[in-house]
Amino acid sequence: MSIDRRSGCPINLSLEVFGDRWSLIILRDMIFGGRRHFRELLNGSLEGIASNILADRLKRLMELGLLTKADDPSHKQKAIYSLTEMAITLVPIMAQLGAWGRVWLPVTEELSIRAELLEKGGPPLWEQFMDELRHEHVGAPSKTPPGTPTVRQQLRAAYEEVVARKAEAPSV
Amino acid sequence: MSIDRRSGCPINLSLEVFGDRWSLIILRDMIFGGRRHFRELLNGSLEGIASNILADRLKRLMELGLLTKADDPSHKQKAIYSLTEMAITLVPIMAQLGAWGRVWLPVTEELSIRAELLEKGGPPLWEQFMDELRHEHVGAPSKTPPGTPTVRQQLRAAYEEVVARKAEAPSV
DNA sequence: GCAACTGATTGCAAAATGCAATCGGATTGG
DNA sequence: CCAATCCGATTGCATTTTGCAATCAGTTGC
Asked: Interface pTM (ipTM) of the complex?
């Protein structure tokens, strides 16, 4: 279940962590979609992960140190998953991955608007986003000045705007 | 063999391209190791890819537009694989992946020195490297001033330096 | 009480992977 | 000229991983 360690190359070791079809998808939904519960991840993702795979990956990501699990006080059965610093620092990789995919792959507009915003914002926006995630997941005090719109709000607004524009002027 | 298209999300589509254990390893060896032939990729990589998997992935990467294949004029049997622009623009992703792995995973010093150099050099160095790759693989004219040491030379020198230092002061 | 929901687990078929052996053609050394 | 070697794969087969549906036992809301 843990790591193979085929070689000590950083790229190889990174691939052994999330060189599969689901681990990064789960982290994407937690980072950008704000999902924290098993069912949210199960039903919320567009790609339709199976529950056994999800359970397996969550376990694996915890073992690798990317996630932690805690009891949700509001519900004795609910578990709440949190991103660790190790996972939060994946934001730049996610941003680059999104930027590359947007250029070379048949992405849909609604789904790529977030990647575009993240690309345009560059490293400063990534830092602000990572700061927010640390606040939400690790409980760290936020360094962004109060009143600043959160990155998640910006991402959401950009998405809504595209959806609204498409609804009023359907192209297909 | 081609793409699943589970969703139009850029991160998902990117994962469908190289969300497996070997595709990025092959591209890494071509980009950073300068390997162009089947046997070089087969025997040269530390991770020990099987020949059938290598053949499968080379075919797949060609179908996806990341590689092209041409006859080697010097040897009627040899094929030479080239990176396309699509593959060359993976350099920033590779750099970020290496940087992340260097922080969070048990990398070895010899193998992570290249990631370190690439991280320190930042986007300008990435651009220079991509320019070199375009020159080597696509035949584009190089924009870097003559006399400048190539990134590949710098990467090689940094690696040699670590190996030499380790040889004269063995820690284990 | 009971239906709906919680985070999972089980069983099973299908696909991917890892590994070793092998292929036919091309080249090289003597 | 001929054997050995090298070339990019291909084949067969056992093991592992994946995808999918059904199911589980405990919790909650009504």
From this structure: 0.92
